[in-house]
Amino acid sequence: MVDPQPYDQVRLHPAPAHTHGIDPTTTLIVADTVDDQPDTYVLWHLDTHPDHHDWAAAVTTGDIRTITRITPTGDVRTWTPSP
């Protein structure tokens, strides 16, 4: 597939997840890309998480275990990115 885009949901590999202080089974949302740093993504907790407004992390594609994209028509696709 393709690289993550804003609003995609991701899960991190265990080591980067623990570095950022989260459980690797936690689903995060891609909030933005970093313009001057290719392959870098800003992640937030989902809006249902109590720390939604108090936590963010910047990661690279190599830190991401899975990407899930939900399309406007309701299609769901999950894939593993290529670092």
Describe, in short, the structure shown.
The chain contains 1 helix and 6 strands; from the N terminus they run βαβββββ. The chain is mainly beta and 83 residues long. The N and C termini lie close together (12 Å).
Characterize the structure shown.
By secondary structure, the chain is mostly beta strands. It is built from one helix and six strands, in the order E-H-E-E-E-E-E. It has one helix at residues 14-19, and strands at residues 9-12, 28-33, 40-45, 56-60, 64-70, 76-79. Strands 4-3-2-1-5-6 form a six-stranded antiparallel β-sheet. It is globular.
Helix and strand topology:
Blueprint: E1 9-12, H1 14-19, E2 28-33, E3 40-45, E4 56-60, E5 64-70, E6 76-79
Antiparallel strand pairs: 1-2, 1-5, 2-3, 3-4, 5-6
Oligomeric status: single chain
Question: How many individual β-strands?
Answer: 6
Helix content: under 10%
Main sheet characteristics: 6 strands, antiparallel
Mean pLDDT: 90
Question: Roughly how many Å apart are the termini?
Answer: 12 Å
Number of helices: 1
Could you list the spans in which at least 5 consecutive residues all have pLDDT below 50? none
Q: Give the SSE string.
A: EHEEEEE
Rg computed from alpha carbons, rounded to a whole number of angstroms: 12 Å
Spatial order of strands in the largest sheet: 4-3-2-1-5-6
Class inferred from helices and paired strands: mainly beta
- Strand-residue proportion: 35-45%
Could you say which overall geometry the principal axes of the C-alpha atoms support? globular
